[in-house]
Task: structure prediction
Amino acid sequence: MSNSKSHTSEIREFFKGTTYLDPTYDPAFKEFFGEEETLKNFLNGLLHLEGKDRIQKLSFKFEEEIRFRTPYPKNLTFDIFASSENGRFFDIEMQKADHAFFIDRAILYNAFLAIRAKQEMEHSPEFLSLSKDEQRKQRYRLPETVSIWICNFDLPETDGRAIDRWFLYSEGSIGKGTSDPVSTRNSYIIINLPRFTKTAEKISRPEEVWLYLLKHAGISENLPHFGNEIFEAALERIKVDFAKDEFLNTQEKAMIAQEEIECRIAEGRIDARKKGLAEGREKALIEIAVGLRNDGVPMEIIERRTGLTKEQIAAL
Result:
């Protein structure tokens, strides 16, 4: 019993002076966005949906593993896989640190999302109620998919924007000054948290509140009230005083693992001066994965924090 009390005391000491757990780490991220109303508000804000266009019902799952054979098995895990009642599909990813081939990873996840969404659509009651002839006509139709990447590092590709939206564009149309994408069924929303610098007084939209809370909850003793119980409920779920010891322990491990990763990546950058940036970063990530695995850190945390796949980690 005394050991249990001592361990609890150590966990609490780790978070001393902190009001809220940092929602940019996996455990608190899941709690923060762990309610349907929270995610609906977040997505409706990001997509600027108003009135009858707003998402009314949303199904979602954390750590949704996707597996395809192409021709060999390929696995990846979405942080959050969600679908709305009107046929939209979402992948929401929280990224603490940059790594080699980040853009390639985002494109790969988006491809898996499109395939998964297509499968879901073709098994829906609406699609199955169509005649066989109509189903054949729609065999290439895609549902709307949105890949959302929340980056807690400065991503140059957003050109300094806190929220950047990526679509498929035609080079010819852009040259003519046309900004309409070729298709709006597949898109990315990239959130660059370091570039979000609005103060609470300047915030005017719901998605800006969510970005403010994501950025400041883990480092602020007090946060402003934004007059919406959805925001307050999300914060309540990550309040240190109300968190169970098991949850605090999981959060602590995730934070320590991330600190180790950032230190190793920094070392990798030094090595990269001699060996090339990509090679140095890759070596650092492999060393991190081996160390974390040997320390008993769960595979899904290693995968998410390093950007390596389960297959790569298992082969080490």
